[in-house]
Design a protein that fits this description.
This protein is of the alpha+beta class. The chain has two helices and four strands. A hairpin with a 5-residue loop joins strand 3 and strand 4. The longest helix has 27 residues, at 7-33.
């Protein structure tokens, strides 16, 4: 007995395959960024020189990846304001 796959079954199979592929890519990207399910804090800081800082730059605390730069803005005094998303466990190691 020969089994034939209908056109509708092929479309549904392709849809399920693409959906699974997107989920795996999403999880891989978020795991690469680090700390997928850890709570995050938003901090704002000001620097006078922001050379090489872009949205998505990794924030390091004691050499470990602690978060990312979420937003950058420049004020009228040419100071760079950074909005940082930091994982909660690293918050205690940040000195003000």
């Amino acid at each position: 007995m020969q089994y034939q796959i209908s056109k509708m079954e092929r479309i549904i199979g392709l849809f399920v395959f693409v959906a699974l592929l997107l989920i795996v890519a999403f999880l891989a990207f978020n795991i690469k960024q680090g700390k997928l399910f850890t709570p995050k804090l938003t901090l704002q800081t000001m620097v006078d020189r922001g050379y090489g800082i872009v949205k998505g730059t990794v924030v390091k605390v004691n050499g470990l990846s602690a978060g990312m730069v979420e937003k950058i803005r420049l004020d009228s005094a040419n100071l760079v304001w950074l909005t940082l998303s930091i994982s909660y466990p690293f918050y205690k190691n940040i000195r003000i």
